């Protein structure tokens, strides 16, 4: 399967950041993996224009489950598509925590993404408290079960495993810990979706940097990364793209 290096700019990026897209595309004209940048919604259209015809694909960080309507401040999956996006992240732990999003809502957003022809990156991951209580597989397994539409396919769905305690902290699980969770997710996907579950990409997120990327990408069932801080600068993200292309 084609691996995925996905950058999530979160609430970062102004017009000056468009230069990073050009730099990334110029440095990686024929990468050995898919490259995705999810800028803030304010920049999606301009980033998509800048990325047109290059190796860089674009997406949004969230979408509303409805197509349109009276939902001030939200954007729909159709709007993401209209702005040039091909992907949308749903259920990121920051949205689950900041906006009280539960699995049912995340699933509805993934369904909306699919209806609009987008690839949904569905995020799951345990808190430190849950890990320390020995509940990692139970929590992540429950999120996978509840957040994925029944008709998800290998082509339209990516799972991002992001331990909440590893996001933006510089703390990363051991490769054995990552392997255990990714293998468990793979088993659940295969049991539920058959061949599609075997082919669905499972990417890791949480303090991925160029310096630790190769080690993480060598772990079985790690099919790429969802990168926050280290995706903001083309020079940093480029190192991760190189590591994934070589994996
Ligand atoms: O969406 C990206 C993740 O939350 C990871 O963020 P980070 O690479 O800054 O730890």
UniProtKB/TrEMBL annotation:
<keyword id="KW-0312">Gluconeogenesis</keyword>
<keyword id="KW-0963">Cytoplasm</keyword>
<comment type="similarity">
    <text>Belongs to the triosephosphate isomerase family.</text>
</comment>
<dbReference type="InterPro" id="IPR000652">
    <property type="entry name" value="Triosephosphate_isomerase"/>
</dbReference>
<keyword id="KW-0324">Glycolysis</keyword>
<feature type="binding site">
    <location>
        <begin position="228"/>
        <end position="229"/>
    </location>
    <ligand>
        <name>substrate</name>
    </ligand>
</feature>
<comment type="pathway">
    <text>Carbohydrate biosynthesis; gluconeogenesis.</text>
</comment>
<dbReference type="InterPro" id="IPR035990">
    <property type="entry name" value="TIM_sf"/>
</dbReference>
<feature type="active site" description="Proton acceptor">
    <location>
        <position position="162"/>
    </location>
</feature>
<keyword id="KW-0413">Isomerase</keyword>
<protein>
    <recommendedName>
        <fullName>Triosephosphate isomerase</fullName>
        <ecNumber>5.3.1.1</ecNumber>
    </recommendedName>
</protein>
<dbReference type="GO" id="GO:0046166">
    <property type="term" value="P:glyceraldehyde-3-phosphate biosynthetic process"/>
</dbReference>
<comment type="function">
    <text>Involved in the gluconeogenesis. Catalyzes stereospecifically the conversion of dihydroxyacetone phosphate (DHAP) to D-glyceraldehyde-3-phosphate (G3P).</text>
</comment>
<feature type="binding site">
    <location>
        <position position="168"/>
    </location>
    <ligand>
        <name>substrate</name>
    </ligand>
</feature>
<dbReference type="InterPro" id="IPR022896">
    <property type="entry name" value="TrioseP_Isoase_bac/euk"/>
</dbReference>
<dbReference type="InterPro" id="IPR013785">
    <property type="entry name" value="Aldolase_TIM"/>
</dbReference>
<comment type="subunit">
    <text>Homodimer.</text>
</comment>
<dbReference type="GO" id="GO:0019563">
    <property type="term" value="P:glycerol catabolic process"/>
</dbReference>
<dbReference type="GO" id="GO:0006096">
    <property type="term" value="P:glycolytic process"/>
</dbReference>
<dbReference type="InterPro" id="IPR020861">
    <property type="entry name" value="Triosephosphate_isomerase_AS"/>
</dbReference>
<dbReference type="Pfam" id="PF00121">
    <property type="entry name" value="TIM"/>
</dbReference>
<comment type="pathway">
    <text>Carbohydrate metabolism; erythritol degradation.</text>
</comment>
<dbReference type="GO" id="GO:0006094">
    <property type="term" value="P:gluconeogenesis"/>
</dbReference>
<dbReference type="GO" id="GO:0004807">
    <property type="term" value="F:triose-phosphate isomerase activity"/>
</dbReference>
<feature type="active site" description="Electrophile">
    <location>
        <position position="92"/>
    </location>
</feature>
<feature type="binding site">
    <location>
        <begin position="8"/>
        <end position="10"/>
    </location>
    <ligand>
        <name>substrate</name>
    </ligand>
</feature>
<dbReference type="GO" id="GO:0005829">
    <property type="term" value="C:cytosol"/>
</dbReference>
<feature type="binding site">
    <location>
        <position position="207"/>
    </location>
    <ligand>
        <name>substrate</name>
    </ligand>
</feature>
């Amino acid at each position: 399967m084609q691996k995925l290096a996905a950058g999530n700019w979160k609430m970062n990026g102004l017009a000056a950041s468009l230069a990073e897209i050009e730099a990334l595309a110029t440095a990686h004209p024929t990468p050995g993996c898919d490259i995705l940048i999810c800028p803030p919604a304010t920049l999606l259209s301009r980033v998509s224009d800048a990325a047109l015809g290059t190796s860089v694909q674009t997406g949004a960080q969230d979408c509303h489950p409805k197509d349109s309507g009276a939902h001030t401040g939200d954007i729909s999956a159709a709007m993401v598509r209209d702005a040039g996006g091909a992907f949308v992240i749903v259920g990121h732990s920051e949205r689950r925590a900041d906006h009280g999003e539960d699995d049912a809502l995340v699933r509805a957003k993934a369904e909306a993404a699919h209806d609009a022809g987008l690839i949904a990156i569905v995020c799951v991951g345990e808190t430190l408290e849950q890990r320390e209580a020995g509940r990692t597989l139970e929590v992540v397994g429950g999120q996978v079960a509840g957040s994925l539409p029944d008709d998800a396919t290998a082509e339209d769905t990516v799972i991002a495993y992001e331990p909440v305690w590893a996001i933006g902290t510089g703390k990363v699980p051991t490769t054995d810990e990552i392997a255990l969770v990714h293998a468990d997710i793979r088993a659940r996907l295969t049991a539920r979706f058959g061949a599609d579950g075997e082919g669905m990409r499972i990417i890791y997120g949480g303090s991925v940097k160029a310096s630790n990327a190769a080690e993480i990408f060598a772990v079985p069932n790690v099919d790429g990364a969802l990168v926050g801080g280290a995706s903001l600068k083309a020079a940093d993200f480029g190192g991760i793209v190189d590591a994934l292309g070589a994996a």
